[in-house]
Write a structure and sequence with these properties.
single chain, 292 residues, mainly beta, Jelly Rolls, 2 domains, globular
């Protein structure tokens, strides 16, 4: 069985127009995020087709776990979205370990796949401080420019940003994000921007409780203990094996069919675990997301 999901749109201060122009979504100017696979209460995905039309992923996970191969986790573990950064996103960090437990959430790793970016665009991942004293010295001098690590990016690049890693997306970047189902982040620095007449609040103390020091490693792998991501381009018919818990997918470009179901750029879907194989046809680029 193939399930498709209705996207949830999120307007942000840094959102642009690429999510509507690139994917033909019916969303307004300033939409920064499209949540396509989510059981998070801040944006529940609903099924758009078939027997379970109108049901949320959360309902299916709780009442029809057999669709997911009876996965052992109590809570649905991932959140999949597109993000259009028309402006710089704030420099932030996601909780890990005890800090995540205090927030009542899970540690949040993010896999990013760059769909497009402006020339000379970069991403902020990690920092240059060797120890906490150096880190605090940078903060006391407000020397964020020399603290953060900027990495040049291009279309097709991928990164795994683990919980506790200082990071930020630069303006002009359109990307796919696959992450743990967590919507908690600590804003470390926001470029002193004014929003609705005042600066947005920072959470520096909480960020300091969870940020990795030192943190000088750039990771490009696409797998952690919860999920893995595979980006594939197809130009002819192909068959792959389904995962034991089913396989989620996002159509990144083109159009075609997945197990005889028509799909196009911007679609979010799921092949239920009762299907042994996944047949793909058409000129199509797909991100496969497999629970592990």
């Amino acid at each position: 069985m193939i399930l498709f999901f209705v996207p949830v749109f999120k307007e942000t201060m840094w959102g642009g127009s690429k999510l509507s122009s690139e994917f033909l979504y019916d969303c307004v100017e300033g939409t920064g995020e499209v949540w396509g696979i989510s059981a998070h209460p801040h944006g529940l995905s609903t099924v758009s087709n078939g027997l379970y039309q109108g049901k949320t992923i959360k309902e299916l996970w709780e009442k029809h776990r057999d669709l997911f191969g009876n996965h052992p986790l109590d809570d649905f573990p991932i959140l999949v979205k597109f993000i259009d950064a028309f402006d710089d996103l704030s420099i932030q960090v996601h909780p890990r370990g005890e800090q995540a437990l205090k927030e009542g959430t899970v540690a949040k790793d993010e896999f990013l796949y760059i769909l497009s970016c402006d020339p000379m665009t970069d991403i902020i991942i990690g920092h240059h401080a060797k120890n906490k004293a150096q880190f605090m010295n940078y903060i006391e001098r407000s020397d964020y420019h020399h603290l953060i690590r900027r990495i040049p990016i291009k279309k097709g690049d991928s990164f795994l940003i683990e919980a506790g890693t200082l990071h930020a997306i630069s303006k002009g970047t359109l990307f796919l994000e696959v992450e743990h189902s967590c919507d908690v982040g600590y804003r470390f620095y926001d470029y002193d921007r004014i929003y609705h007449g005042k600066k947005r609040p920072l959470q520096v103390r909480k960020a300091m409780n969870t940020v990795k020091i030192p943190d000088d490693e750039i990771k490009h792998n696409v797998e952690n203990e919860t999920f893995k991501v595979e980006i594939q381009q197809y130009n002819q018919a192909n068959t792959i094996m389904n995962g034991p818990y089913g396989t989620f997918f996002v159509i990144l470009d083109g159009e075609g069919q997945v197990n005889q179901s028509s799909c196009k750029k911007g679609d979010f879907g799921f092949v239920t675990s009762d299907e042994n194989e996944i047949n793909v046809s058409g000129a199509i680029q797909i991100a496969w997301i497999i629970l592990v």
